[in-house]
Amino acid sequence: MDLFLPYIACVTLALTMYAALRPSPLSMQVTMVAIGVAASGWLIGIVTGSLSAFNEVSHGIFFIIFSLCAVAAAIRMVTHERPIYCALYFVLIVVSTAGLLLMLEAEFMAFALIIVYAGAILITYMFVLMLANQAENPEEPYSQAIYDRIPREPAAAVAIGFLLLCLLTGTVTGGASSLPPEGDGTSQWYVLEKLSHQFETNVLEIAPDFAWPPISEDGHVIQFGSSGPYIVSGDGTVLELDEAMLPTNTQMVGWSLVNDFPVTIELAGVILLMAMFGAAVLARRAIELTEKEKRKVILGHDSEEVGDDR
Amino acid sequence: MMTTFAPSALSGYLIVSGLLLAIGFIGFFVRRNLIVMFLCTELMFQGAAIAFVAVGRYYFDYSGQVMVIFILTVAAAEAALALALVVLLHRQNNTLDADAFGELQE
Predict the structure, then answer these.
(1) A198-216 pLDDT, tens per residue?
(2) What values do phi and psi take at A212, rounded to 5?
(3) Residue B86 maps to which CATH number?
(4) pTM of the full structure
(5) Interface of A with B in 88-107 (CB under 8 A)
(6) Mutation site, B14, B21, B25, B39, interface A, largest A CB count within 10 A
(7) What ipTM is given for this predicted complex?
């Protein structure tokens, strides 16, 4: 029976989505979102097991809050009939995602997500929405266009979407136990080793009379013992390393970015440049100029004055 | 900082990313407003970003976060191009209905 519980949660969510997609009064919509959030909370609960899966209980509580916020806002965004509200609910999703990334110790990405998504991309969407979204009937400015009120093929879309969700759920519940073991963090120490200036400063701060440089064994300066990483100086002194010495998250991301993906950065630059060209070419409006206006644009002044001078 | 990450916590994050992906997928097919359809693709990007960072955290591998930087790049480029196209189409037909552009094919 336990095997089927996640799928029952998925089906509940699917039925809720289908009901929420139909045009209905606000109280009904709110009830549907509540049921959807309860179903996804149940699904997350089944998969995670208990809060003890997290390193700290507070992490687990924040994880639940942020993920349920994200799911509720996502359901509301997909079903809301006013596009401006969809964009605002998407801001809520971005903020909850940033919270989840903070729980995953990805501080840089969390704030970059808020700045780039909520600050830049969503503002562009809002601009275009307000530019393009005029009321069809001027006498009723708050009525929405028919294409915003009536969904297209909700049954088929919900069926396919939740087949996808069931597949993902099956993979995650069945596959998590057979994952390769989690990392032990040694790679972080090897990055510190390569940041030689920071490494030396940190070591000399806690042990001013340490004889720099330490000797290396098997290609690595940092060795791992039973009580953690340590280094050995040229005169045989052993110094245990502290976790506070590790590079910060932002440093590690920067290191990985320029060390492991140099070509991809160039590609990202090309993509952005091409997007800029494309947007400029697409959005330009061709203006028909008469012969006289063309001459004015080229010469910089009125051509008739030229004639008078001559 | 060095604390390990339990597999069941990883599955929790992966399920959240799957939920966002599935809801965005449904929204993309169900909505008929062009701009909201593109918003739903951004929602699917969010789901992918969570999965990348969670798996990266599990293995102490920062490539996951680097991938999110590239997702941001692609999302920004896509938003610029898609919105330029939408503005163009809206100027032509004065509607945002995706079904109204069926006759664009020759």
Answers:
(1) 888 888 887 777 777 777 7
(2) -80, 145
(3) 1.10.287.3510
(4) 0.86
(5) 90, 93-94, 97, 100-101, 104-106
(6) B39
(7) 0.93
